[in-house]
Amino acid sequence: MVVFAPARMTMLIDILLTTLILTAAIAARYLVLSGLAYWLLWQRGGEKLAAKRLNRDRPMRRVMLQEIRLSLLSSAIYALPAAVAFVAWMHGGTKIYTDWRAHGGVPYLLLSAFIYLVVQDTYYYWAHRAMHHPRLFPWMHAGHHRSRQPTPFASFAFDPAEAALTAWLLPAMTFVVPVHIGVVIALLALMTVTAILNHSGWEVLPHSFVYGPIGRHLISATHHSHHHLRYGQNFGLYFRFWDRMMGTDAMPTAEARGQKPSA
Fold it and tell me: Residue 55 and residue 217: Cα distance in Å, rounded?
């Protein structure tokens, strides 16, 4: 029989309560921001924002409801490791800090953000490629790819196994790599916005930027939408580095010429 000490029991209760709170917060953030993007781009009209439509068809209600169901489940799965890290931080058990002057000030703030992005991008590239293996795809990644023409609601639509595979990385890094709480918040905001925009079915970034000296190294909606049509290409999360290194990088040739992509 396992007997928990009072301190451990208190921490366990804190983690469970924090998981519930974070689940609600993550789900609410997802619904509000994805809903806003859907309204701005598909209801109000992306042309009014000078965006370029990528999807041939308008989003189907059945597909969006499926994306929302998977996303709400993913919210709970992502909340648990985040809750563990949060409770550990409150007890001084992580490398999260609050004084921006620590660790060298602003230069380290920028360096730590870059480290987190590069590690996450690298991990995601290889995990994403692995999930496309025929033996793993049906139960780890097929749910996300039911949206061949994704909508903003697909941004968090993961099968439970995929969510479990990807949810732990950033919380685990906070136990190893010092990071300011402001950088953590900024990274979470960046993750959310890029995921929504890259699944929106519209390219909101200017053509000159997407194919320019900076944009051509980054994942855009144009780049990721191609992945939903050509499963064997474009596995990256933020950067195109690993796709280029491993020969899996591709951009729609029609888009590269500034033309409307073919179906």
Answer: 22
Q: What's the pLDDT tens digit per position in 131-164?
A: 999 999 999 999 999 888 999 999 999 999 999 9
Task: Tell the residue number behind the tokens 């990721």, with chain if given.
Answer: 224
Q: How crowded is residue 60: how many other Cβ atoms within 10 Å of its Cβ?
A: 12
Looking at the DSSP assignment, which residues form a beta bridge with residue 202? 53
Burial class (CB in 10 A: 0-12, 13-18, 19+), 233: middle
Q: Is the dihedral of CA 180, 183, 189, 190 positive or negative?
A: negative
Region class of 203: left (phi > 0), else alpha (psi between -120 and 50), else beta: beta
Which pairing describes strands 202-203 and 179-180: parallel, antiparallel, or unpaired?
unpaired
**Contact of 38 with 151, CB cutoff 8 Å:** yes
Determine the Cα–Cα distance for residues 239 and 128; give it in Å rounded to an integer.
14
pTM: 0.90
Q: How, if at all, do strands 179-180 and 96-97 pair?
A: parallel
Per DSSP, helices labelled H in the chain are: 6-38, 61-90, 106-131, 137-140, 142-145, 160-167, 169-173, 181-198, 207-210, 221-229, 241-245, 253-256
Residue 246 to residue 80: CA distance in whole angstroms:
33
